[in-house]
Amino acid sequence: MTEKYYYEDPYIRTFESTVEKEQTDENGHYVVLTSTAFYPTGGGQPHDMGTIDGVVVKNVEEVDGEVRHYLESPLSGQEKVRGEVDWNRRFDHMQQHAGQHILSAAFEDLFGYKTISFHLGKDTCTIDLDISNLVEEEAKRAEDYANNVILTNKKIVAKWVAPDEAKQFPLRKQLSVTENIRLVMIPDVDYSGCGGTHPASTGEVGGISILKWEKQKKLVRVTFVCGKRIIDELYQKQKVMEKLTKTLSVPQENVAEAAQRLVQQTKEQEKAMDDLREKLLAFEAEALVNSPLPVGDYNVVQLITNEYGMKELQKLAKMMLNENSSVIVLLVSEVGEKIQIVCGRGADVNLDMNLVLKEVLPVINGKGGGKKDFAQGGGEAIRSAEDVLKELISQCTVDV
């Protein structure tokens, strides 16, 4: 069993130890030490990082009681080594984890909302509350409650206890283990079974800020940050706000209103553009449908374009077929490295356009389909649009 300094004192940053074994498994090259300050992944908290004799520790996992330090490269073979924990990462995790205890306690004490799970991410943390809805007033009260606990600078005590002793404390939830029980306690605030690292007092958490919350199946997921992450979050938001105030030419307090106006204007302009496109399509449909070309027994409207996508081709074809029920419509669009095809026929024409399309698609490695009166598909531009149109026309002159 590896001696775990991170439980004895989470503030240990450097240590000396002895190599017990060094080998490789499916996850990479790792070393096991007789003692370590590197915290392994567990309990919602990510692993520590740092170096062992200058070699980067990229992952730490506990397997059958031994702590495996996965390294970027093998060690030099020496028995005695020196480890150094990335303190900024460790202390950040200590702040976030303790902050989670405090925030979960706030929601439960104020409203009876229990925390189901916790995730400590790279930039933000989340807790899942066993409720279907959370309102802003509740979130603000819980945040204020949690920050008041931080300001009172209560001690955070980690203690190993026997099962009978654990029953003496008002634990938040049932313990998941029956031996090697470790409690993390904030007197009068929270008593929880926990294997994570925490600071010595709530004041070191620095602060808690709830960023957002959202429905997650039958739960509510609350996203928050603690400590230095609040400063980082504020910095990023301030940079965004500066850009918005300059772009919108309004003071900070009017940014939301100006953004809403801009969004509304954009929607109106997009609608106007859509209306213009519809009118242009209608004009083009009218011009094309009145000048079909005879192909065998049919009158065929033909078009090659590099301006329209599939959506516009379909609209254009349907406009023409609604206008003239005795024509066939063959439209081919070549944009970039793609060919798109729309085939349609009026109600007075007896020709299976789906079969026409299916006969042509192989020449462009294409896919598509539809019904007897209307079909669409696309493929690679390995043949020109002109060649594809000729293939379509040829299929209209045979018994398909």
Word description of this protein:
The protein has 9 helices and 21 strands. Strands 2-3-7-6-5-8 form a 6-stranded antiparallel barrel. A 6-stranded mixed β-sheet has the order 16-17-18-19-21-20, with helices on both faces. The chain is an alpha+beta fold and 400 residues long. The chain is elongated. The protein has helices at residues 5-8, 87-111, 136-151, 163-166, 228-248, 255-289, 310-323, 353-360, 385-395; strands at residues 3-4, 14-25, 28-33, 35-36, 50-52, 55-63, 66-71, 80-85, 115-120, 125-129, 157-161, 181-186, 190-193, 208-216, 219-226, 293-295, 298-305, 327-335, 338-345, 367-370, 374-380. It is 34% helix and 32% strand. It has 3 domains: 3-85, Elongation Factor Tu (Ef-tu), domain 3 (Beta Barrel), CATH 2.40.30; 91-235, Threonyl-trna Synthetase, Chain A, domain 2 (Threonyl-tRNA Synthetase, Chain A, domain 2), CATH 3.30.980.10; 279-395, Diaminopimelate Epimerase, Chain A, domain 1, CATH 3.10.310.
In short:
The protein is of the alpha+beta class. The chain is built from nine helices and 21 strands.
Features:
400 residues; Threonyl-tRNA Synthetase, Chain A, domain 2; alpha+beta; 6-stranded mixed beta sheet; Elongation Factor Tu (Ef-tu), domain 3; single chain; 3 domains; 9 helices; Diaminopimelate Epimerase, Chain A, domain 1; 34% helix
Q: Based on helices, strands and strand pairing, what is the structural class?
A: alpha+beta
Largest sheet, spatial ordering of strands? 2-3-7-6-5-8
| Main CATH class of the largest domain | Alpha Beta
**Main sheet properties:** 6 strands, antiparallel, barrel
CATH architecture title of the largest domain: 2-Layer Sandwich
What ranges have pLDDT less than 50 throughout 5 or more consecutive residues? none
| Element pattern in H and E | EHEEEEEEEHEEHEHEEEEHHEEHEEHEEH
The coarse overall form would be: elongated
Mind telling me the CATH superfamily name of the largest domain? Threonyl-trna Synthetase, Chain A, domain 2
How many domains, in number, for the residues? 3
Total beta strands:
21
- Rg calc: 34 Å
In what range is the share of β-strand residues?
25-35%
